[in-house]
Write a structure and sequence with these properties.
DNA-binding, Fur family transcriptional regulator, alpha+beta, Arc Repressor Mutant, subunit A, repressor, three-stranded mixed beta sheet, Fur_C, Dna Ligase, domain 1, 126 residues, globular, WH_DNA-bd_sf
């Protein structure tokens, strides 16, 4: 699995991320797992998240000045972010792949990917 040895702690962190739709921070992951893994530190969470990002297993989302959030969904998708409460919601918009093709044709770049965020106010905060 991408050269990452799966310890029980790593499995717990990755499973939590894959099951979570909330794009948690490292601290939120720590709080969710601390009862089951009392010997796991926040530093362990951060180190393993960094390892997973480098291995291409998860994405790190860096929006604004807040703590990084982590996403276990590696499919092509985008994020709508509430400017009031900070909730991040996934959405799909396959037509944006056409923008990559156009950029490649116009610039000669070998396009690796793109990122898009939509900012506004979620239904709960409206």
């Amino acid at each position: 699995m991408s050269g990452v040895r799966m310890t029980p702690q790593r499995h717990a962190i990755l499973s939590y991320l894959l099951d979570s739709m909330t794009h948690p921070t490292a601290d939120e992951i720590y709080k969710a797992l601390e009862q089951r893994y009392p010997n796991m530190s926040v530093a362990t969470i951060y180190n393993n998240l960094k390892l997973f990002v480098e291995a291409g297993l998860i994405r790190e989302l860096t929006y604004g000045d807040d703590s990084s959030r982590f996403d276990g969904d590696m499919t092509d998708h985008y994020h709508a972010i509430c400017e009031s409460c900070g909730v991040i919601v996934d959405f799909h918009y396959p037509q944006l792949l056409e923008a990559e093709i156009s950029a490649s044709k116009e610039t000669g770049f070998r396009v690796r990917g793109h990122r898009m965020e939509i900012y506004g106010t979620c239904e709960r905060c409206s």
